[in-house]
Write a structure and sequence with these properties.
The chain is α/β, with parallel strands linked by helices. 28% of the residues lie in helices and 20% in strands. It binds alpha-D-glucopyranose. Alpha-D-glucopyranose is lined by residues 75, 137, 184, 263-264, 288-289, 399.
Length: 731
């Protein structure tokens, strides 16, 4: 008997011990992955496939026999949407699903306050948790390329650095509640017009430098647990299951370990969905908001056709296993987590956060003759004119619409704040109801409204015109784009008429997009107030009364005319596209990058926003002259509040490279810091920028590349208001 046969039992036992020890080691390192492996090994193929697609409008199947729960999802990015029916788009008619409506994300971006973004995300996530949702279908971070995009109000503006910086704390805040954020819409969904058919052509450089950064930050810095594929195509392929975007970049380069969820009906092919990385298919057979096909679920691309392909070996079982592994990982982070928080809703803290984001996001654009703030004086009469003073701004807009427990209108907020002044009101103009994909006629006669408004204006000392856009179709609304750059519903004419009756007009502009401003010279003051949610009226009154000093900065430019915008400078082939294809011909020069580089002055610039006090930025310095490619640049300056009112300023640092081997924007935002200063107070602000943030995406090597040589550093409080320009060298 040789050695092996003699000691065979010992050898087996020894190697078994080694093997189980390694497995135990593995399990200790990745207990979650071990648990997932053990569940995978007992799931049937049918159960695995069933987890990869919807069972209802907003849920996917669990595994009843094993006690694996369903996954419940809900919109949206600035509040938890009311419950939708099981199998159609009608609301379910619940009476326990009203919530806090937070400001839309353009407002959050305008705060330039990442800490506040964390509070926003946490509060919203708490409400989603309380409403028993496992996935919150937000935030949206598609870049603002054109002022006509119906959904810009839901997103974070035209600059990738601002969106990337603000989205990370928001996602972390949501996910602290054991609720998955679902960053959307990945990618290049920058218009609503024919969103489910349009094919986007754009350079690799613009893709990586402008359109992907916020998603990359969501994955690599916020560890987002899910991401939503977009409706549109990119280079001829649907983005929801795109070999380059989803398989190579997202799951390959960025190592995304979460779940890719389709937009509702954005999946189009079983094999591509299976092999290019779509994990959960939702909403197929619907157009995302309107049409729906009842009980369509077994016909989904990742339903029976997928099961069939798995059974006949056309698709390997490892493909469905990877999807289920990701889905189970999301469940262990949410509805199967052992220490999941409980959630809260409609509580004071959330209302306070909503109000704080609103007041910090409101942007003071114009303030001639110190029109704002308006004193609460018993001798003055204020006429509040305009439909937006009373129109609900939480309903409409598409999937992000909300059913708030309450919504304070601008008129109500002003009436409650101004106890001494006399507030009178007239609707002035009126649009139709906010109904998805229909423009509803106004129920009122425009002339009679105008006559009435002028009468009211005559009686007042001051007019507050509360106008802008609405959340109805072809306005700031999902499903299609705006059709005009100017204000709708006869507002421009109305302002002209009111001006004849009363010289003192302040415009409270409620929009999620830039608009034409031919009336600008006719008003003394303009505040850009966004869609502010439940606390809108209180926040607007806080700013107008001076209780809060405005500190918002524009997250996008206001072009004088539409053709001054980059996307609108190359004809229909660039926007809205011809024959369902469009090319982003402005390339990397989006927003202020276009205005600066083409020397086209906007009416109001990215990063601009006034205050009731004054600041100055002095002693701007950088810590070095020469930097290595792996170094960090520290920019410092002293900010002084030279006025008599406490306030906040946003120091912004832009970087450019006037001498370069590649096309460059004059300057790009690479750092910012918001500083709160009491009257007379001075603070030193310091902003660090990693040199690798200066890299450009080099198409010749399909990778990032830091060009050596001189760079310009611009420090100021707006993209068009630079206090100091300095030079550094990267060697
Ligand atoms: C919509 C939207 C998406 C939303 C989803 C569910 O079509 O594009 O943002 O989350 O469908 O309502």
């Amino acid at each position: 008997m040789n050695f092996v046969s003699k000691y065979y039992p010992v050898i087996i036992c020894f190697s078994l011990t080694i093997f189980t020890t390694i497995q135990a080691q593995e399990a200790k390192q990745h207990p979650l992955e071990a648990k997932i492996d053990s569940i995978l090994s007992i799931l049937t193929l049918e159960e695995k496939v069933a987890m990869c697609h919807a069972q209802s409008k907003f849920s996917t199947k669990g595994v009843e026999r094993l006690g694996i729960p369903e996954i419940w999802m809900s919109d949206g990015p600035h509040g938890v949407r009311a419950e939708i029916s099981w199998d159609d788009w009608a609301y379910a008619g619940w009476t326990n699903d009203s919530i806090t409506a937070f400001p839309a994300l353009t407002c959050l971006a305008s705060t330039f306050n990442p800490k506040l973004a964390g509070e926003f995300g946490f509060s919203l996530g708490e409400e989603a948790r309380y409403r028993k949702k496992d996935v919150l279908l937000g935030p949206g971070v598609n870049i603002y390329r054109t002022p006509m995009n119906g959904r810009n109000f839901e997103y974070m503006g035209e600059d990738p650095f601002l969106a990337s910086t603000m989205v990370v704390p928001y996602i972390k805040g949501v996910q602290k509640n054991g609720v998955a954020a679902c960053v959307k819409h990945y990618a290049l969904n920058n218009q609503e017009h024919k969103r489910d058919l349009i094919n986007v052509e754009v350079s690799d450089r613009a893709l990586h430098e402008i359109y992907l950064p916020a998603f990359k930050a969501a994955v690599q810095k916020a560890n987002v647990w899910s991401i939503m594929g977009a409706y549109n195509k990119f280079r001829g392929e649907y983005t929801t299951h795109h070999e380059l975007l989803t398989k190579k970049i997202l799951k390959g380069d960025w190592k995304f370990d979460g779940v890719v969820i389709s937009d509702w009906s954005s999946a189009h092919d079983t094999k591509k969905a299976a092999l290019n990385g779509l994990d959960i298919e939702m909403g197929t057979g619907t157009d995302g908001l309107g049409m729906t096909t009842a009980n369509h679920y077994n016909q989904y691309y990742l339903a029976s056709p997928f099961l069939k392909a798995l059974k006949n070996g056309e698709i390997s079982e490892s493909v469905v296993n990877d999807k289920v592994r990701r889905i189970l990982r999301l469940m262990y982070r949410t509805n199967m987590s052992s220490n999941r928080p409980l959630g809260r809703a409609n509580n004071k803290e959330h209302h306070d956060v909503a109000r704080k984001v609103a007041t910090e996001g409101i942007v003071l654009l114009k303030n001639d003759n110190n029109f704002f703030p308006i004193k609460d004086d018993k001798n003055i009469t204020i006429a509040v004119i305009g439909e937006n003073a009373t129109r609900s701004m939480t309903t409409g807009g598409g999937s992000s619409e909300l059913k708030p427990k309450f919504e304070i209108s601008p008129l109500q907020g002003l009436k409650e704040r101004y106890k001494n002044a006399t507030i009178i009101h007239s609707i002035g103009y009126a649009s139709g109801a906010s109904i998805y994909d229909q423009v509803m006629p106004s129920p009122y006669d425009a002339d009679s409204l105008k006559i009435e408004a002028i009468k009211v204006a005559k009686k007042a000392d001051i007019v507050l015109f509360v106008g802008g856009l609405s959340k109805s179709h072809l306005q700031d609304c999902e499903g299609d784009d705006r059709k005009q750059y100017g204000l709708p519903f006869g507002q421009e004419e109305l302002i002209d008429e009111i001006k004849k009756a009363n010289k003192n007009i302040g415009f409270v502009l409620i929009t999620g997009n830039a608009v034409d401003m031919p009336w600008l010279s006719k008003v003394d003051g303009v505040i850009q107030t966004w869609y502010l949610g439940s606390m809108a009226g209180h926040a607007i009154a806080d700013i107008i009364s001076g209780d809060v000093n405005p500190s918002g900065k524009l997250p996008f430019s206001f072009p004088k005319k539409l053709e001054d915008n980059g996307a609108h400078s190359f004809g229909a082939s660039s926007y809205p596209g011809i024959n369902l294809t469009q090319e982003y011909k402005e390339d990397i020069l989006v927003g202020y990058r276009w205005h600066d580089t083409k020397k086209i002055k906007p009416v109001y610039a990215f990063g601009y926003g006034m205050s009731y006090t004054d600041f100055n930025i002095k002693n701007v310095a950088i810590d070095n002259k020469k930097y290595a490619k792996n170094g960090t640049i520290t920019v410092s300056c002293d900010v002084t509040n030279t006025g008599t009112i406490d306030g906040a300023e946003v120091v912004q640092v832009y970087v450019g490279k006037s001498k370069s081997n590649v096309k460059r924007a004059v300057k790009e935002l690479k750092g910012f810091s918001k500083v709160f200063l009491k009257s007379g107070e001075i603070q030193t602000v310091s902003i660090t920028i990693n040199v690798d943030e200066l890299a450009f995406y080099d198409e010749s090597i399909s990778d990032w590349n830091i060009e050596e040589g001189d760079y310009e550093i611009y420090v100021g409080n707006a993209s068009n208001n630079i206090s100091k320009k300095m030079k550094i060298t990267v060697k």
